[in-house]
Each structure stands twice: as structure tokens, then as C-alpha cells.
Amino acid sequence: MKNIICDIDGVLLHDNKLIPGSDKFIHRVLEQGNPLVILTNYPVQTGKDLQNRLGAAGINVPETCFYTSAMATADFLKHQNGSKAYVIGEGALTHELYNAGFTITDINPDFVIVGETRSYNWDMIHKASRFVAGGARFIATNPDTHGPAFSPACGALCAAIERITGKMPFYVGKPSSWIIRSALNHIQGHSENTVIIGDNMRTDILAGFQAGLETILVTSGVSQMSDIDKEPFRPNHVFACAGDIDIV
Q1: Nearest Cα to 15, choosing from 57, 69, 44?
Q2: How far apart (Å, rounded) are the C-alpha atoms in residues 10 and 19?
Q3: Nearest to 207 by CA among 72, 14, 64, 66
Q4: How confident is the model at residue 104 (pLDDT cuts 50, 70, 90)?
Q5: Order of strands across the sheet with 194-198?
Q6: Half-sphere exposure of 106 (CA within 13 A, CB side)
Q7: Is the pLDDT of residue 15 over 90?
Q8: Residue 236 and residue 238: Cα distance in Å, rounded?
Q9: Which DSSP state fits 244?
Q10: What PANTHER family does the entry give (predicted)?
């Protein structure tokens, strides 16, 4: 029985509205007993928040199935030396870091960690840049530049710090294979027996490809059939939407 890693936006939901058939797909997967990770680059919501978000759209999933770039960032940092972090982000990210044993501080941090926040300001840019220039390691939850309606996302917030310091962060989220490995460890799964379902060739499918997973592209979100030939790699399967998937 295959492990399943499934994206949210563009696969299960559009904004917060159900993509028809995705509820039946997820409920079937749970009934079959496939190990399931619902994976998102978005670091602002906790597993409980995401459970409530999907539940409101009619998809009922245990909280333990959700895995975010904030969780993966905390997992990544547990494997590094250092315990102090200056954080630009919301409560879900700081919560995961606290749980991993980190001290959140603006005094000689070992790491500068950027997630997403609407309260981004000049002072944050200044402090983060000064710390990174002084040797703090620069970590970002995900490389996405924008969300719905061109709302600024993590990659955009990192851009100012990158330009000032000349240093790029390590991006934990998709398309990095790190978040895939971290999600698999979360369910004690292995890449050779895992399929990833996503709507974006350059994040979901690339991350799966780089991590050695079987890949399923659904064309209900970002990438369309015409986009497949623009990339040097290919998904293993293509379906119009999650409700059409019949191979897991």
C-alpha cells in the first residue's frame, strides 16, 4: 500500500472552496488505510488550523495528517548546531520552534528564520540583515514569492535580506527535497513506496522528482497540460483533478 503526500491548494481546495471530487478521493484514501500526509509550504497555520480549514470545505482528516513548512523547518534545525533564533513569522512557526527547543531572541541568534507575516517591517529587515551579515545562518520556510491575489509570501520577504547581505537562505519547503524527506520521516515512510500529488510542476512535482517519488500532476491548479513540456522532467501521471485519480 502506497504512502500518499498530497498538496492542498489547487489539489483539494481553491482558496477555501472544495475542488469537486477531492473530498471523495481523500476519504477513500483514509478508508483504504494509505498512510497520508497533507503537505503545504504555507507556514502560518497549525495542523489544527488546517484540519478546521479542510473540515469547513467538507474534507474530514485527522490533525496528525497535516505537515507544514514550519514543522519541516523545526525538524531541519534540530539537525543543526545552535539553539537561538531570530524569527520573522507568525505563531505557528514560533510554536514549532519552541517545541523543538529553540530560544526566540534578537540577541546574538544562531539562525535568522523567515516565514510569512503581515507585520513585516523596516526593523525586521534591519535586524535580520545585520544578523545574517554577522554570521547567523539564514533559513526560510519556503521559496514561494506570492500567494493568492499577489499577496507577498516568504520568498518575497527574504528578497530584501538577500539583496542587503548578498546571502541566500536555505529554503526548507518545496521544491526542496528536504521537506519531502521530513514528511516521510513523520510517517516512517520510504520514497520508493510513496506518491506525491500536486498541481505545480515547479514545486510539488519537482520536489517529488528530486526525492525519488512517483508523481501525479493534477491540472486543477497552477500547471496545465501545456506547461509540462516547458520542464526537463515529467510527472509519472496526469489527471484533471484529484477526484479522477484511480491508481492509489
Answers
A1: 57
A2: 8
A3: 72
A4: very high
A5: 66-68, 36-40, 3-6, 194-198, 214-218, 237-239
A6: 9
A7: no
A8: 7
A9: G
A10: 4-NITROPHENYLPHOSPHATASE-RELATED, HALOACID DEHALOGENASE-LIKE HYDROLASE DOMAIN-CONTAINING PROTEIN 2
Residue given cell 520510504 in the structure block: 190
Q: What is d(CA 101, CA 116) in angstroms, rounded to the nearest whole number?
A: 21
- Distance of alpha carbon 248 from alpha carbon 246, whole angstroms: 6
Q: Do 116 and 157 meet the contact criterion of CB atoms below 8 Å apart?
A: yes
Distance CA(43)–CA(65), nearest Å, equals: 15
Compute the chain's Rg from CA coordinates.
18
Residues 6+ apart with CB under 8 A from 162: 168, 169
Among residues 131, 132, 152, 128, the alpha carbon closest in space to that of 142 is found at 152
Mean pLDDT (the chain, rounded) = 97
At 111-123, the pLDDT tens digits run 999 999 999 999 9
Query: Which residues are part of the catalytic machinery?
Result: 7, 9
Angle between helices 69-78 and 177-186 (to 10 degrees): 90
Whole-model pTM over 0.70:
yes
What is the distance between the alpha carbons of residues 13 and 22, in angstroms, rounded to a whole number? 8
